[in-house]
Amino acid sequence: xxxxxxxxxxxxxxxxxxxxxxxxxxxxxxxxxxxxxxxxxxxxxxxxxxxxxxxxxxxxxxxxxxxxxxxxxxxxxxxxxxxxxxxxxxxxxxxxxxxxxxxxxxxxxxxxxxxxxxxxxxxxxxxxxxxxxxxxxxxxxxxxxxxxxxxxxxxxxxxxxxxxxxxxxxxxxxxxxxxxxxxxxxxxxxxxxxxxxxxxxxxxxxxxxxxxxxxxxxxxxxxxxxxxxxxxxxxxxxxxxxxxxxxxxxxxxxxxxxxxxxxxxxxxxxxxxxxxxxxxxxxxxxxxxxxxxxxxxxxxxxxxxxxxxxxxxxxxxxxxxxxxxxxxxxxxxxxxxxxxxxxxxxxxxxxxxxxxxxxxxxxxxxxxxxxxxxxxxxxxxxxxxxxxxxxxxxxxxxxxxxxxxxxxxxxxxxxxxxxxxxxxxxxxxxxxxxxxxxxxxxxxxxxxxxxxxxxxxxxxxxxxxxxxxxxxxxxxxxxxxxxxxxxxxxxxxxxxxxxxxxxxxxxxxxxxxxxxxxxxxxxxxxxxxxxxxxxxxxxxxxxxxxxxxxxxxxxxxxxxxxxxxxxxxxxxx
Amino acid sequence: xxxxxxxxxxxxxxxxxxxxxxxxxxxxxxxxxxxxxxxxxxxxxxxxxxxxxxxxxxxxxxxxxxxxxxxxxxxxxxxxxxxxxxxxxxx
Lengths: 573, 91
Fold this sequence. Notes:
- The structure holds two protein chains of two kinds.
- By secondary structure, chain A is α/β, with parallel strands linked by helices.
- Chain A has helices at 52-76, 79-92, 95-106, 111-129, 131-151, 175-178, 199-206, 242-259, 282-289, 302-305, 314-327, 371-388, 402-414, 427-431, 433-439, 447-454, 473-489, 503-512, 524-532, 536-548, 552-561, 565-570, and strands at residues 13-15, 17-19, 23-30, 43-45, 48-50, 166-170, 186-191, 211-213, 226-230, 235-238, 274-279, 295-300, 332-336, 393-396, 419-424, 442-445, 493-495, 516-519.
- Chain A has an eight-stranded mixed β-sheet.
- Chain A is globular and about 80 Å long.
- A four-stranded antiparallel β-sheet of chain B has the order 1-4-2-3, with helices on one face.
- The interface between A and B is medium-sized, with 22 and 20 residues.
């Protein structure tokens, strides 16, 4: 990868796919790759290979430095990051690990081989113990990578410790990696790989961070160089001009002005449209509590399960759900049951060796192979409801038929869940939304997956992003069919896909009859503003225009042209 | 050689935070202490990696052993620690 030729410096602008509309300016902090060092690489001190006691001294100091740096970083961090770093620091400080490595080095074994040998022994013991410990192998490996890098004089791998607010740049960032980020010091996330509806981008959106994915050459950016990241245009500009910096500052100013409006979402003629937030954890719920979001339209419970190698217990799940409900007293919280599989594999729930996981046993279909997972989750949600006195709305993902909706509703109601719904993200469910709504209290459109399945386009293929566009006429037709069924049955139809966060598309969705919009919290002010400036009749007209257009681009252009001029100017459309 | 046998009180077993607190206490005592599961090999009780890899579940007994003039005092302190739920204040 381009990191290897560190001498090459990127100049000008890089392009990728932006998530959200925000722009920021700040220094680059590169996430360093794992050091690629041969097991028998010589340890060089001032260019001279050293072994024996001299090598022991270098290795011993590397362990000390890594442990001290981690402990120091931990003491300055908060929450989960603090705990993760403290535990990793203690591993680096472990006397058995260190003495094992020093003994091998003293006996003449090359440094990297010695470290790997001892780490592998502990890793094997952890894996054998299974469960919680098997997960900690990742922490152990990260200690290994850091000590090897330190001893061999290479940059420390992984997410760097951020001393100033920075633009985090990586080849790719696993959802678990974002847990190690000190969010107060992250301005934006830029990756070379990934897609705009991949989960790194979604989680970044949830945190309100501008995010750019598929940015070729991003890992070649020099550490510390100042860049402007504009999610609206998908551009990273190296050493931006003062004009660009000013333009981004003006845009941020507009955003701040829009944020002043915290009244409930409604059209200009007063038709209420609930504006909700998408979240993944109880901590997100606490963040949402401080915003003008009227509640949560999508609580993605799989995030709680992502790092687990065994199913979390009912008690653990209850505690997490109760914490989220308690953070938002009296507000609507829609919880989606486990949506594992495809791009969100879980160690204990995903079928190995599926040839086509997006079309396989994923989402609610897990009930066919592992009904206990669903039952335990419903049990925990009912317990959280009892413990908090707050009744969550509960919905199942990947429902294809009315029979599946009926089965889920029966299970949920048996546990005492009062408001039961399903996701509409499979075209069959949209086409038969009327029958599905007879079985449940509400539905929620997941437009990312609905576009994926309607257009036969993998969500993770960035080069097919145009086909995944939620403005595609066929996707809009299916949204319209679902919203129509909602109007006829008098039941709520929400949208919790990323399309709800586009203020232009949001107007079309409302015009079609959608009753609530759920998005990343950062997108709420612009959507609230756009709604406020259009009547429900105008929204209906915009929807007719969008449905009549022959292509995604034409649909959006037609709607933008007929927007309120002030909205167009303010949002820079 | 002094020995003590005690059941691990922490709900999560001797993992995570409880293991961290326990091994830090062993290291701070300055006395070499070993820990073993019933019928298992004793390992260094001051090593978080060894202690964690024992994988001791909540309620299971472990045996601590140490030598020297301070052994009894240190072991008594460590027994008290293991008999407490060290994870009590985390969610």
